Amino acid sequence: TSIGSAAGGTKGGEVAEPMEVQEIEEVEIESTPNLIREPPVGDVPPTQHINQVMGWQSALPSEWVPIISRDSQRQRRQSPQGPFSDAYLSGMPSKRRKLITSTKPQGNLSQVISESMATALGAAGMSSGPEVDVIAQRAGQDNTLRAAYREQVRTTLRHNLNSNPDYLPDKYPNTAKYLKK
């Protein structure tokens, strides 16, 4: 029988021709024990350590190696992504916006400090209970702590804006006024 009839026939009674295939050579894969080594002991720069452990340079064209090395160093040095602006968040789908804003502190300064204190006490191993609630509540009402929190926000904002090339005090006069306080 022909291939066409074995496969259930073809249109118009044509007989299907067998497909040509190439023989694939079997290639023996070399074992590469030198790619995975124990990390060296002592003070080794991170790039040198990665290069010794990974051994990836030999598998790439030599002109790619410095570019990839530079990119990997840049990625390690990158500062973490700052929070999204309210304008950016307002353009997101509501479900995604809720996920992102759920981690953002909500409420006035006293509530934010109280919630932060309760979270910190929980992380320190204190079980939640009336004692933790009282401590957190008192922390939120402490004027010294609130002033220190405001100053820390102002200092952090000042630092972030000084390192941001897009910030121009003339363009954002209210922010500049807030930072001068």
UniProtKB/TrEMBL annotation:
One of its GO terms (cellular component) is BAT3 complex. This is Uncharacterized protein. Residues 1-12 have a biased composition (Gly residues). Residues 20-29 have a biased composition (Acidic residues). Residues 1-41, 71-96, 158-181 are annotated as: Disordered. One of its GO terms (molecular function) is polyubiquitin modification-dependent protein binding. Signal peptide: none annotated. One of its GO terms (biological process) is ERAD pathway. It comes from the Eukaryota.
